[in-house]
Design a protein that fits this description.
By secondary structure, the protein is α+β, with helices and mostly antiparallel strands.
Length: about 110
């Protein structure tokens, strides 16, 4: 068997072992991975954000979409309300609002 096949087989076995590994709470890593992948995330779009907010958005991890011309960031469902509040108070300051799009696991991992 060629070396590359042996290396691949070893990698596959290591992955299977890792995913089947039990955690202290009794669940496997694979079960945790599936549960996390099923939770929706959001894409926070800072559409029409003022130019002056550029550095604040970059500091918070937002990325520039040069085609659609706005800042965006992927966030967890649990962080949606807090992120919206921050954008409204620190970026928009009474002039506009962000848009939040739900992103499913299928969309996230295409």
């Amino acid at each position: 068997m060629p070396t590359s096949c042996r290396n691949a087989a070893g990698s596959i076995l290591a992955l299977i072992y890792l995913l089947a590994h039990g955690l202290p709470d009794g669940e496997t890593i694979l079960a945790k991975l599936i549960a996390c992948s099923e939770k929706p995330t959001y894409r926070a779009n800072a559409i029409d954000a003022p130019f002056e907010a550029k550095e604040r958005l970059k500091a918070r991890g937002y990325r520039w979409d040069s085609v659609l011309r706005f800042w965006w960031k992927a966030i967890a469902e649990a962080d949606k309300e807090a992120e919206e509040a921050r954008l409204l108070s620190d970026v928009y300051v009474g002039h506009g609002s962000p848009a939040f799009l739900t992103v499913t696991a299928m969309e996230r991992h295409r």
